[in-house]
Structures are given as C-alpha cells and as structure tokens.
Amino acid sequence: MQLRFLYPPRRPLEAWLSEDASRPIIAEVQKLLAGYGLYEGETTGCCDAATTQAIERFQELRGLSPTGKLDPVTYCRLLVPAATADITPVSAGERAAGGLVRARIHLVKSLRRLTLYDGNSPLRNYPVAIGKPATPTPEGDFAIASKILNPGGVLGSRWMGLNFDAYGIHGTNAPWKIGQMVSNGCIRMHNHNAEELFHFVPIGCPVTIRN
C-alpha cells in the first residue's frame, strides 16, 4: 500500500457513535461496509443491529477490538482499502521521495523521550506521554503506516499510525500530561512537536520502541 496522507470526508471525532445513533456519517459508513461485503442492508443513516454487526466483523478482520461501535480508528481504517499492517519499513533510498531521507524514530519508554534520527545522527529529541501500566505502549520494531492531518480532540493536530493494531504517535489536547504514563498505549506529543515530526517522517519510517 502506498498511502501518503488520509483526508477523511468528515472529522474522525464525529465517528464516536454507538448503536441506535442516527447521523449522516453512518450512511457513509454503511456504504463503506457494503463495499467490503460486510453489510447488505439499506443505507439508512441509522446505526442499527445489522450495522453494529458489520462494524464488529470489520474490526475483527482488521485486528481491532471488536466492540461493534464506530470510533475514529475504525472509521479511518474503513477509508483505507488495505490493512495498514501491510506496511513494512522501507530503505533509505526509497524514503528519499518524501520527508527526511534517512529518518528513523527511537522511543525510550523509561525516559519518556522520542528521538528522531537522520541515519545515525540524532536530529530532534521530544518529551512524550506513554501508555499507563494497564495499557502499556508496545515494545518492538515498527513502521509509520499512516499519516492524518488535524484529527482533532485527544489526537491533537497530527496522527502517525504504526503498523501494529491501533497504536500511533499523535498530538494531544492535554499538554500538561506529557511526560507521564497516561495513554491507552499510544505515544502523545505536544502538538507543535507532533507537527514537526509529521513533516520529517515519511510512510515506512522505521520506529523502534524500547523500555
């Protein structure tokens, strides 16, 4: 998949909906679900039982928590034909097409610090908030799989999704929590820092997370 930027027709935060809700965004979601062969009902704009079941099935197929409720991550995944998990890190040469050519991200959870490297040279160092003990930030080797401008709300001004479940690096609407263990597993940054990082890193940028 060669996703570069995702421009949702509606703000992702409009997707916080549950069963029996009735809004225009639901009609769009029903059409998207029908395109995946998961919904056969009418486009009513009402989140009925059939729509909830289709959302739950889609979430299962994409490795998301099968709640059956529409949320911003599920909505954005619906807009992307292929699973973002298909994204793998690309070589420095391939990254030359956009962003910092040799960009890579390294996060040290115990320090609550995220470092942007240009090859082996540290370029920027940012304070971050990470997952709380009950929902820790995952450790491992990942890659940037999606980039969303201005998702809003708890996601702040930028979203950089990882190729693992629904985790990502994003801005925040609670900057006073940066440096703490407070998230559901995502990495939160000050909005101005997230915007700068967003500019530097291309799709496929390697991300390593260590304790």
**For the residues shown, what is the average pLDDT?**
82
Question: CATH homologous superfamily of the largest domain - what is it?
Answer: L,D-transpeptidase catalytic domain-like
What class do helices, strands and sheet pairing give?
Answer: alpha/beta
The span between the termini is 30 Å
Uncertain runs: 1-5, 82-88, 93-97
> Main β-sheet, in a few words?
8 strands, mixed
Architecture overview:
The protein has 211 residues and is α/β, with parallel strands linked by helices. It has 2 domains: 12-84, Muramoyl-pentapeptide Carboxypeptidase, domain 1 (Orthogonal Bundle); 94-210, L,D-transpeptidase catalytic domain-like, CATH 2.40.440. The protein is 20% helix and 23% strand. The protein contains 4 helices and 10 strands, in the order H-H-H-E-E-E-E-E-E-E-E-E-H-E. The strands form 2 sheets. It has an 8-stranded mixed sheet with strand order 3-2-1-10-5-6-7-9, with helices on one face. A two-stranded parallel sheet has the order 4-8. A hairpin with a 4-residue loop joins strand 1 and strand 2 (113-118). The longest helix is centred in the N-terminal third of the chain and has 13 residues, at 49-61. It starts with 23 loop residues before the first helix and ends with a strand. Mean pLDDT is 82; it is low at 1-5, 82-88 and 93-97.
